[in-house]
Design brief:
Helices cover about 15% and strands about 40% of the residues. With about 750 residues, the chain is mostly beta strands. It has 5 domains: about 210 residues, Glycosidases (TIM Barrel), CATH 3.20.20; about 100 residues, Sandwich (Immunoglobulin-like); about 210 residues, Jelly Rolls (Sandwich), CATH 2.60.120.200; about 90 residues, Immunoglobulins (Immunoglobulin-like, Sandwich), CATH 2.60.40.10; about 90 residues, Sandwich (Immunoglobulin-like), CATH 2.60.40.10. The protein is elongated, with a radius of gyration of 34 Å.
């Protein structure tokens, strides 16, 4: 009604007849359309000056006139009011007036358009107590308009983050109104829940809430986390939706208790937990990200789930169920590398696609049991060509890998390429995928190579990668989480090249793009695994939650240090494996993480001001658990330092200046660089454009970059390398090559 009147005041003086006529017209319109299930809300936010411009008493009088007119026309009408904001004193005065004049609404309604969502239960409780003490009997309460408003947005903009709405829903459940409605000021739409029919993070948060069926159970909120939960024996599941107040630094511990009373969730003392993160975004569909998909052991009728890095703008959804013991079926090849010796790798799928170890890869400890270590030069496992290894309509490639930080330009995990086929591996500088140190999945579909990629991986740590294709899209997963996808239709191009693990095939053998590191549990399917199945492959057992231990050993606390080569060392251990140790100087990273034991770094103390400083170290295990060592205090004492002004020396080792190079092929660009102290990096440019950077030379001080020569013939390219030392002195070299 307030929108129809545009700020005029019905029910007083000349507007009374207009007010009653408008109500009559609306009743007639509803009847003509056959509407029967209607709640009649007489006015919107009368306590807000923009919608009611005079005294509260004038609104109360208008309410009485409108109420009696509507009752005369529709005796059984459900009348709702006053639909004020959370102006509780105003609502109480209205209730006293309505009781005294016998015009109480059938549903008590109010709005929540700003303020702390934690006040909602208080408001509802306060109003119920007030009505009880004043003999007011209104059976239902409705929060018939609410938004997540942070005080900085404009009035008509609700906060789009799913974390805030998860907290709102938790407080709504505690307040227990009979109904509630999220506001949308965009006509004919669900606002920022689903603009243009796209599923935003808010849509996923509300879907998670809708999926909480069965009996609601209590969530005991902390100062930082709140939520809503339910258990449903008909589906054999329990679900929890959580939001965080202010965010949680590090892991957020969520304890789920009383599990002995819901036997259908556990099997053999174990319970399965799927945890999904709903991140904040206003740019359309953002799928929930799986962060945990594992079985937990029930102890004392409860489990504790550690949710990593819980931001206040995010929501988490937990789904509990009995563990699934059904194995993944239908692999066409599986290489578990459990032999531990010899020159063959059996295909444990039973399909007889035996692999042969070429050029001496080393048997070693793997992610699960044993594995094979590749030297990054010419090691590989080769499997003879077989049509079963070349699925055309759908497929999955999956493997565990632990990459060495000295990996070359391209490192093949699984390769079967020529004009068709597939490739899964590491792209060190982003030549193929556009992101340095990423895992890339490549498929030749309908004659076109399609590349999808992850973000940067962690070296010297176990990662699980999977590439799937289902005939309509390719998807790449890293550690069980989908990180990229692309629409794709058609069949995967055939190739007669062998299947290679640790290298890419060429000329009927494994000879290109060697991998440096360890590969384990290679699996190939002739179907596209689901996201849940991929997560199962990437989740062997319950998650490792044991923290590593770490302590600084050198220098001692109180030591005086000086010079350009101060050794800083630490001892670190873990129940599974230490992935790396990051040393810290005054809380900031000191150099790069050391991923190889014994853990140490050389510190140039001349770059630090003289005086007292603190050193520490952070140990990280392969499950991303971290521990910070107790810090030590040292005293830096350096005399006059002679600056380094000598530039490094750099020269090409390949290709030769003026060389003719094959178009549309990979060209190895190698440059030797030395310095009186240390070369920090070598940059590679083509026609003035930076293409890549190498910071790790081989044993001959050669820095490398692989460049794919563009297709045109007869084009001359200017290739430049620039070497830098730690003082940022530089020198360069230039050659030219021509495509053929």
């Amino acid at each position: 009604m307030s929108d129809s009147y545009g700020g005029q005041l019905p029910g007083y003086n000349a507007y009374q007849s207009t007010w009653e006529a408008t109500i009559a017209n609306l009743v007639a319109k509803a009847d003509s359309l056959g509407f029967t299930d209607i709640e009649w809300d007489l006015w919107n936010e009368p306590d807000y000056v923009q919608l009611w411009r005079t005294s509260p008493q004038q609104f109360y009088d208008a309410w009485e006139i409108g109420y009696r007119k509507l009752r005369s026309l529709k005796p059984g009408a459900v009348i709702v009011g006053p639909s004020a904001t959370t102006n509780i004193p105003y609502i109480k005065d209205f209730l006293l007036f309505a009781k005294a004049h016998n015009v109480l609404p059938d549903v008590l309604s109010f709005h929540m358009v700003w303020g702390n969502e934690r006040n909602i239960p208080y408001y509802a409780s306060d109003l119920r107590a007030f009505m009880a003490s004043n003999g007011i009997n209104i059976p239902k309460i409705s929060l018939n308009e609410y938004v997540a408003f942070d005080g900085s947005d404009s009035f008509t903009t609700s906060v789009p983050d799913p974390g805030r709405h998860a907290r709102l829903l938790a407080n709504l459940e505690q307040a227990a109104p009979d109904s509630a409605a999220k506001a949308s000021w965009t006509s004919g739409s669900l606002g920022n829940v689903a603009p243009n029919n796209s599923k935003t993070p808010l849509w996923w948060a509300y879907k998670a809430y809708a999926d909480i069926t069965g009996r609601l159970v209590r969530v005991v909120s902390s100062q930082s986390i709140d939520g809503v939960a339910g258990q449903d024996s008909s589906t054999g599941t329990a679900r929890v939706l959580l939001g965080s107040y202010g965010g949680v630094t590090g892991d957020a511990a969520v304890s789920i208790t009383g599990l002995s009373h819901v036997g259908y969730l556990a099997s053999g003392g174990r319970i399965h937990v799927l945890a999904e993160r709903i991140t904040s975004s206003t740019k359309g569909s953002t799928l929930p990200q799986r962060v945990i998909d594992a079985d937990y052991t029930v102890s004392g009728s409860q489990i504790t789930v550690l949710l990593p890095s819980f931001a206040s703008t995010e929501a988490f959804v937990l789904t509990l169920s009995a563990p699934d013991t059904t194995p993944l079926l239908d692999p066409v090849a599986v290489y578990a590398f459990e032999e531990g010796s010899g020159s063959t790798a059996s295909d444990s799928s039973g399909n007889g696609n035996t692999g042969t170890l070429l050029n001496g890869p080393i048997w070693t400890t793997g992610k699960i049991g044993k594995a094979v270590s590749f030297d990054g030069a010419n090691d590989s496992v080769m499997v003879a060509n077989n049509s079963a290894l070349m699925p055309s309509s759908s497929l999955t490639l999956a493997a565990w890998f632990n990459a060495n930080p000295q990996q070359g330009q391209f490192g093949t995990i699984i390769g079967k390429t020529s004009s068709g086929g597939y490739w899964l591996g590491i792209d060190r500088d982003g030549t193929d995928g556009g992101v340095a140190n990423a895992v890339c999945g490549e498929l030749a579909v309908a004659g076109v190579w399609k590349i999808i990629h992850s973000q940067a991986i962690v070296y010297s740590a176990w990662n699980h990668v999977a590439l799937t294709y289902d005939g309509s899209a390719a998807r790449l997963y890293l550690n069980g989480v989908q990180v990229d996808s692309a629409p794709l239709t058609g069949t995967v191009g055939d190739t007669t090249q062998p299947l290679c693990i640790g290298m890419d095939p060429n000329g009927g053998t494994c000879s290109d793009s060697p991998f440096k590191g360890i590969i384990d549990e290679v699996k190939i399917y002739n179907r596209a695994l689901s996201g849940a199945e991929v997560f199962t492959l990437a989740s062997p057992g319950a998650p490792d939650t044991t923290l590593p231990s770490v302590s600084l050993t050198v220098p001692a606390s109180g030591a005086a240090v000086s010079g350009t080569a101060v050794t800083v060392s630490a001892n670190a251990t873990d129940n599974v494996a230490v992935a790396g140790v990051q040393f810290k100087l005054d809380g900031a990273n000191l150099g790069s993480e050391d991923t190889t034991s014994p853990y140490s770094i050389t510190w140039n103390s001349t770059s630090t001001a003289n005086g007292s400083h603190t050193l520490s170290a952070v140990a990280r295990d392969s499950s991303a658990n971290k521990t910070t060592a107790a810090s030590v205090t040292v005293n830096v004492s350096n005399g006059l330092v002679v600056p380094d002004t000598a530039p490094p020396q750099v020269s090409f080792t390949s290709p030769l200046d003026g060389a003719r190079v094959q178009k549309d092929h990979k060209l190895n660009i190698n440059a030797a660089a030395t310095d009186n102290i240390k070369v920090s990096k070598v940059e590679f440019y083509v026609d003035g454009v930076l293409k890549g950077t190498d910071t790790v030379p081989d044993s001959n001080n050669v820095y490398k970059y692989v460049w794919r020569v563009p297709p045109p013939i007869g084009v001359t390219y200017r290739i430049q390398v620039i070497a830098y030392d730690s003082s940022n002195n530089s020198s360069s070299g230039v050659i030219s090559v021509t495509s053929k």
